[in-house]
């Protein structure tokens, strides 16, 4: 699994409000895809296992702190 890092990206998230006051925000755990909230919205079925593994690793890391 690739190393986790940080990035500034565009888009809309309630996390923007928390980030604006200096809180750390975790986003980007959803499916890989495109066409958000449109009739043409899609996800990459091929990426579902990797995304699931990422979320699982995060939860395990959090409960083992």
Give a written overview of the molecule.
With 65 residues, the chain is mostly helical. The protein has a domain at 31-65. Helices cover 34% and strands 6% of the residues. It is built from two helices and two strands. It has helices at 15-20, 48-63, and strands at residues 33-34, 42-43. A hairpin with a 7-residue loop joins strand 1 (33-34) and strand 2 (42-43). It is flat and about 40 Å long. The mean pLDDT is 85.
List the main descriptive attributes of the protein structure presented here:
two-stranded antiparallel sheet, single chain, flat, 65 residues, mainly alpha, 2 helices
Layout of strands and helices, then pairs:
Elements: H1 15-20, E1 33-34, E2 42-43, H2 48-63
């Amino acid at each position: 699994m690739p190393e986790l890092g940080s990035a500034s990206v565009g888009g809309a998230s309630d996390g923007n409000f928390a980030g604006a006051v200096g809180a750390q925000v975790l986003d980007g755990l959803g499916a890989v895809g495109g066409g958000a909230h449109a009739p043409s919205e899609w996800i990459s079925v091929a990426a579902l296992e990797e995304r699931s593994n990422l979320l699982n690793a995060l939860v395990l890391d959090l409960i083992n702190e």
